[in-house]
From TrEMBL:
<feature type="domain" description="Pre-mRNA-splicing factor Syf1/CRNKL1-like C-terminal HAT-repeats">
    <location>
        <begin position="443"/>
        <end position="596"/>
    </location>
</feature>
<dbReference type="GO" id="GO:0071014">
    <property type="term" value="C:post-mRNA release spliceosomal complex"/>
</dbReference>
<comment type="function">
    <text>Involved in pre-mRNA splicing process. As a component of the minor spliceosome, involved in the splicing of U12-type introns in pre-mRNAs.</text>
</comment>
<comment type="similarity">
    <text>Belongs to the crooked-neck family.</text>
</comment>
<feature type="compositionally biased region" description="Basic and acidic residues">
    <location>
        <begin position="723"/>
        <end position="735"/>
    </location>
</feature>
<dbReference type="InterPro" id="IPR003107">
    <property type="entry name" value="HAT"/>
</dbReference>
<keyword id="KW-0677">Repeat</keyword>
<dbReference type="Pfam" id="PF23231">
    <property type="entry name" value="HAT_Syf1_CNRKL1_C"/>
</dbReference>
<dbReference type="Pfam" id="PF23233">
    <property type="entry name" value="HAT_Syf1_CNRKL1_N"/>
</dbReference>
<dbReference type="InterPro" id="IPR055433">
    <property type="entry name" value="HAT_Syf1-like_N"/>
</dbReference>
<dbReference type="GO" id="GO:0000245">
    <property type="term" value="P:spliceosomal complex assembly"/>
</dbReference>
<dbReference type="GO" id="GO:0071007">
    <property type="term" value="C:U2-type catalytic step 2 spliceosome"/>
</dbReference>
<protein>
    <recommendedName>
        <fullName>Crooked neck-like protein 1</fullName>
    </recommendedName>
</protein>
<keyword id="KW-0747">Spliceosome</keyword>
<feature type="region of interest" description="Disordered">
    <location>
        <begin position="723"/>
        <end position="743"/>
    </location>
</feature>
<dbReference type="InterPro" id="IPR055430">
    <property type="entry name" value="HAT_Syf1_CNRKL1_C"/>
</dbReference>
<dbReference type="GO" id="GO:0016607">
    <property type="term" value="C:nuclear speck"/>
</dbReference>
Length: 743
């Protein structure tokens, strides 16, 4: 009673109550925990110590430990083949071939279906020149796994490399008994051809083709009307391919019993490409009668219900190569009469090409051209302004029709003038006129009509709104080809007067340059510059012309006039050309003055660097001092420059100069001027003006700028004070921890 009372008085332990039973926001899976534990376990493992083996006893101990490790790994999981392979390769590296063989044999007992295991085993024997052992392994491999083509390929390759041609042939024969895929047959054929055994290759082709044809018979003896049944993989397929005078394709008699007793039976059906390869093989080796016979047998084999255009195209091309054009025509017609048009597109295309090459133009070509012409007529009727359709139509007509018909189509095409006078609508249309003129000149050989086409096109173009310089230049070039130089100059002069363009001026000047009419070139350049004084390229070309002619003062005057223009499209190119011109003339003082004048207009860093490089390359006394002086002047000038990258570029160029030519004090002086690269933050605003956060960027603080800004000094002192405070706090923390532990 007392014991029960005492037990009742025992307190029940309290269970912690979970206040928030909702799932955590971030869930951790068991897989993640295991993966992290494995990763941390690998991190904690120390690297294995390096061992140096000095005598045989240590070597034996090392071998014993390694073998024990490998055996333990294999004992843990025998099915992991990589452990076996590593073990065998290690033994092989020690030249323990017998042990490696034993390991491979043990592994094969575990998994004899592993392809990699057989390959590694055989490769080991071959590397160690154990040919007979390698043969035994390959024999076992192809006997155990006869459907693995890689074994057969490597076995035959090894025998061929050893010069055992008969052995390689014997292996191929054993392989062919298994009726492998097509590539295996072709490998056997190529093997025989490498040794000039054409008759053997023909025999293999015959076996390859005829096996697929003649060994097929009805599944039930005496029944040739039933369908054959083939098990592909594990799918039963009913075949309905009929063969002339042989009933339906069914299983061979010798495979009938095997069909019911084997879970897998794979049979290859004949294909057109195999017949074609056989015929091309005969053709390649000069047996044209045999090749023709192969094609005829193929046509007979497939019959009329299973015709393939590839077979007939190859047959026709073969006969075409033999100059048997009537045979080719008969083959094409026979195939086209029996194959549907949708399936005979390639056949029809090849037939058309053949007739164009060897047939009557009024035969097949008239039909094809009329058909395509009808299609193009429908397109241009539906949309007369579809100029791409007109181009295709004209290309077709030019290739076949007479000149009058071509001219008629061209006249119809150019009559469809774009309704809107905007250049983008005329860009395709104007090529109709270009092609028309080229046709009249090159094909029809009618210069007068060509001239009329050019003149009509130039009258049609609205030059007040836009023009096409191409048409003016093509017309001028045509007149030059006709040796009518005044007409060409008149056309180009008219174009410049009506609608001046840069391209027209350039073309006219190029023409006069080729004719060596330099006075005319000068006048044209003057007109050109009056038309576009901001075009720097024109000024440069004009000055270069004068330089070539030897008139230096005139060229210099042109440059002076050019740089004095208030508006230029590429002033930096013009100034550079002027400076290079003076450098070529070895006018050092003039070049220096040009740099000074340019620096009055722009303070770009590249100008300063180029000026300094010029002084350095002048080669005169004091050039180094002048170069250094320019760098100093540039640095002083660019102190107020907002682009700090340009100032840094200048200092880097200066430093490279001092590294090559300066003294130690000069280098130290430039190094003191180099800026400090700091990272800063700034606000970013979106396109709509709202805040888009902060972004980091790099800024450069130059020593000269830092000395002039007291805020930067104050900031540096604040950073130093903070470091001192942290250091003092670190020194006081240990004492504080001791006091807390004592209390």
């Amino acid at each position: 009673m007392a014991a029960s009372t005492a037990a009742g008085k025992q307190r029940i332990p309290k269970v912690a109550k979970v206040k928030n039973k909702a799932p955590a926001e971030v869930q951790i899976t068991a897989e993640q925990l295991l993966r992290e534990a494995k990763e941390r376990e690998l991190e904690l493992l120390p690297p294995p110590p390096q061992q140096k083996i000095t005598d045989e006893e240590e070597l034996n101990d090392y071998k014993l430990r390694k073998r024990k490790t490998f055996e333990d790994n294999i004992r843990k999981n025998r099915t992991v083949i990589s452990n076996w392979i590593k073990y065998a390769q290690w033994e092989e590296s020690l030249k323990e071939i017998q042990r490696a063989r034993s390991i491979y044999e043990r592994a094969l007992d575990v998994d004899y279906r592993n392809i990699t295991l057989w390959l590694k085993y055989a490769e080991m024997e071959m590397k160690n020149r154990q040919v007979n052992h390698a043969r035994n392994i390959w024999d076992r491999a192809i006997t155990t796994l006869p459907r693995v083509n890689q074994f057969w390929y490597k076995y035959t390759y090894m025998e061929e490399m050893l010069g055992n041609i008969a052995g390689a042939r014997q292996v191929f024969e054993r392989w062919m008994e298994w009726q492998p895929e097509e590539q295996a047959w072709h490998s056997y054929i190529n093997f025989e051809l490498r040794y000039k055994e054409v008759d053997r290759a023909r025999t293999i082709y015959e076996r390859y083709i005829l096996w697929m044809r003649s060994e097929w018979c009805c599944f039930y003896p005496g029944c040739c009307s039933s369908h054959g049944i083939v098990l592909i993989g594990q799918v039963v397929v009913t075949i309905g391919l009929e063969i002339k005078d042989a009933g339906f394709i069914c299983l061979p008699h010798r495979l009938a019993w095997h069909f019911f007793n084997s879970p897998v039976l794979v049979l290859v059906h004949p294909d057109v490409k195999n017949w074609i390869k056989y015929a091309r093989f005969e053709e390649k080796h000069g047996y044209f009668a045999h090749a023709r016979k192969v094609y005829e047998r193929a046509v007979e084999f497939f019959g009329d219900e299973h015709m393939d255009e590839r077979l007939y195209v190859a047959f026709a091309k073969f006969e075409e190569n033999q100059k048997e054009f009537e045979r080719v025509r008969v083959i094409y017609k026979y195939a086209l009469d029996r194959i549907s048009k949708q399936e005979a597109q390639e056949l029809f295309k090849n037939y058309t090409v053949f007739e164009k090459k060897f047939g009557d133009r009024r035969g097949i070509e008239d039909i094809i051209v009329s058909k395509r012409r009808f299609q193009y007529e429908e397109e241009v009727k539906a949309n007369p302004h579809n100029y791409d359709a007109w181009f295709d139509y004209l290309r077709l007509v030019e290739s076949d029709a007479e000149a009058e018909t071509v001219r008629e189509v061209y006249e119809r095409a150019i009559a469809n003038v774009p309704p809107i006078q905007e250049k983008r609508h005329w860009k395709r249309y104007i090529y109709l006129w270009v092609n028309y003129a080229l046709y009249e000149e090159l094909e029809a050989k009618d210069p007068e009509r060509t001239r009329q086409v050019y003149q009509a096109s130039l009258e049609l173009i609205p030059h007040k709104k836009f023009t096409f310089a191409k048409m003016w230049l093509l017309y001028a070039q045509f007149e030059i080809r006709q040796k009518n130089l005044p007409f060409a100059r008149r056309a180009l002069g008219t174009s410049i007067g009506k609608c001046p363009k840069n391209k027209l001026f350039k073309g006219y000047i190029e023409l006069e340059l080729q004719l060596r009419e330099f006075d005319r070139c000068r006048k044209l350049y003057e007109k050109f510059l009056e038309f576009g004084p901001e075009n720097c390229t024109s000024w440069i070309k004009f000055a270069e012309l004068e330089t070539i002619l030897g008139d230096i003062e005139r060229a210099r005057a042109i440059y002076e006039l050019a740089i004095s223009q208030p508006r230029l499209d590429m002033p930096e190119v013009l100034w550079k050309s002027y400076i290079d011109f003076e450098i070529e003339q070895e006018e050092t003082e003039r070049t220096r003055n040009l740099y000074r004048r340019l620096l009055q207009r722009t303070q770009h860093v590249k100008v300063w660097i180029s000026f300094a490089q010029f002084e350095l390359s002048s080669g005169k006394e004091g050039s180094l001092a002048k170069c250094r002086q320019i760098y100093e002047e540039a640095n002083k000038t660019m102190r107020n420059c907002e682009e700090k990258e340009e100032r840094l570029m200048l200092l880097e160029s200066w430093r490279s100069f001092e590294d090559e030519f300066g003294t130690a004090s000069d280098k130290e002086r430039v190094d003191k001027l180099m800026p400090e690269k700091v990272k800063k933050r700034r606000k970013v605003q979106a396109d709509d003006g709202s805040d888009a956060g902060w972004e980091e960027y790099y800024d450069y603080i130059f020593p000269e700028d830092a000395a002039n800004q007291p805020n930067l000094k104050l900031l540096a002192m604040a950073k130093l004070w903070k470091k001192q405070q942290e250091k003092e706090a670190a020194e006081q923390d240990p004492d504080k921890d001791i006091d807390e532990s004592e209390s």
